[in-house]
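Hey, can you fold this one?
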Amino acid sequence: MVRLRYVERRPGLVLAPYIECLWEVSSPHPQRVSKRATERVVPDGCPEVIVHLRDRFARNVGGRWVVQPRAFLAGTLTRPWRLRPGRSVSTLGLRLRPGAATALFRLAMADANDRELPLANIVGPSEARALITGLRRARGSDRRFAVAEGWLTARLAEMPARRAAAGRAVNAILKTHGKIPIRDVARSLGWSRRRIERAFKRDLGIRPKLYSRIVRLNSVLATLDEAERGSAVDLALDAGYFDQAHLLRDFRVLAGRAPRAGREGDGEMARHFTRPERLQALFAGE
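Sure. Predicted structure:
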């Protein structure tokens, strides 16, 4: 039985270079928290702005469920997050493109890795409150998406014009599904290894090699259908892994599960994040 409703929309042309999509998840009927299935969110290199309009999700931190802030930026993930929805769910997400957060917000991305940074701490209490209030007053997903796009467009206009320093390197890694060695990325851009490391630290908060691992694992998720689960060795080699053991190790660390487990076990909401068509569009820069 489906207990959560998920909808998604692409942004307009102005925001498209910075935002992959806007999404909303809601529950038609309240349900006891103890009855809620947990969600497993797999790292994909995309930070997110999250606003909980009803009950907030909780995240499992060291075996303890910690309630998330009302509105926050989730930085670049380096490990899977286990989440538990509240009794009544209405949550809106703004999925940023890898490296785009520093074009919209003044922050050090290295401080946001695997963390929830309250939005009020990033943009100020009044601006964060304006977004939350506007979303609460809007009726229906389309209107809430319009409010969120308007808020982001205003932020973009206020920020100094700048492109993510790591943008070209990110695109090279995405287009090759994480197979290209970082030294070759640096060489193709005429950069030193030190420069590419600095760019990734500023715009993504993680090292480029780790980002390549995340992209490579997601490239497997994008092709891992029922028929392919029986040939993990071929999948590993096609994706650029040394062998099957290398693939399985990254799945355990980054996805928190084995390849054969499938997306359905990730949860009603999280399985939408790893659907093949979404990941293929990400690799293509769409």
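The two ends are 32 Å apart (CA to CA). Let me know if you want another pass with a different chain boundary.
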